[in-house]
Amino acid sequence: MSWNGKDELKLSIQERGFTLDVDGRTVPGVYWTPAEGESNRLVLLGHGGTTHKKVEYIEQIAMLLVGKGISAMAIDGPGHGERAVTQMAPEDMAADPEAFPRMWHEGGGTNGVIADWAAALDFIEAEEGARPTGWWGLSMGTMMGLPVTASDKRIKVALLGLMGNWGPNADDLVRLAPQVNCPVRFLLQWDDEIVPLDSGLELFGKLGTKDKTLHVNPGIHTAIPPFEFAETADYLDQRLS
C-alpha cells in the first residue's frame, strides 16, 4: 500500500494517487487536500456507475469540499476506472443489462466494497491521522456508500441518493439501511428513468437514522439541479464541523 505518481496541484488543491492491495484486489485511489493549511475533516466520494474516481463531477465536489478546508478521497469501484477490464458507457448498460451486475459481483460485490473502503480509510488515517469523516455518493455511490456507512462507524454523516431497492445489491441495501444511524441527506429525481422513484422512497424510509432529510427534484437521473449539488458540500461542512 503506497502513494504513487507525482503530486499534482490544481489551483489550491493538492492531488495524490495511491494504490492498495485488498484481499488480492488492486484498488486505485486519489486523495485531495488543501494545497496550503491543514484539514481536520475528510469526506469519502463514491462515483456513479460507468464512471470512475476522477470523473468530472467527483472532482467538482472535491474542489467544493477542499475550498471549505475538507479533504476528500475516492477509489475506483468494482469493475470501474482502472479496475475495469473493458470501459462501459451508459448505452452499453442498456444494450447488455447483465454487464453491470457482472462487473459488480466480479469486483467483490458488497462485501468487497466494504473492505476496499475500510482499507482506503485506514491508509489515509495512517498517513494523515483520524478526523471526522463523511460520505458523498449518488447512484452507484450509494450502492457503495450505504453499506460502508452502515458498517463503518467512522462515517459521521452521509449524502446519499439516486438509488433504491434496485440493482445488483438491492437485498444488501434493504438489509443494511436500518443500520445507518448517522445524519443523512437523500436526493432523488422525480422523473428518474433508471432507478424507479418508488424504490428510492422505500429505501429512504428504511434508513435507521431519525436525522434524515429527503430532497426530490424534477428531472431525469442525471439532472440534479446545480444549487442542490452545491448544497451537498454545505451540508457535509455543517454536519462535520
Give me the CATH fold name: Rossmann fold
Name the CATH homologous superfamily: Alpha/Beta hydrolase fold, catalytic domain
Spans of at least 5 consecutive residues whose pLDDT stays below 50 are none
Assigned CATH architecture: 3-Layer(aba) Sandwich
pLDDT averaged residue by residue: 93
Secondary structure tally: strands: 9
- Which class best fits the helix and strand makeup? alpha/beta
Helix count equals 8
Sum up the structure in keywords.
241 residues, alpha/beta, Rossmann fold, 9-stranded mixed β-sheet, 26% strand
Quick description:
The protein is of the alpha/beta class and about 240 residues long.
Description:
The structure is a single chain. With 241 residues, this protein is an alpha/beta fold. The protein has helices at 56-66, 90-95, 99-106, 109-128, 140-151, 170-176, 197-206, 226-240, and strands at residues 2-10, 13-22, 25-34, 42-46, 71-75, 133-137, 155-161, 184-189, 212-217. It has a single domain (2-240), classed as Alpha/Beta hydrolase fold, catalytic domain (Rossmann fold), CATH 3.40.50.1820. It is 37% helix and 26% strand. It has a nine-stranded mixed β-sheet, sandwiched between helices. The chain is globular, with a radius of gyration of 17 Å. The relative contact order is 0.13.
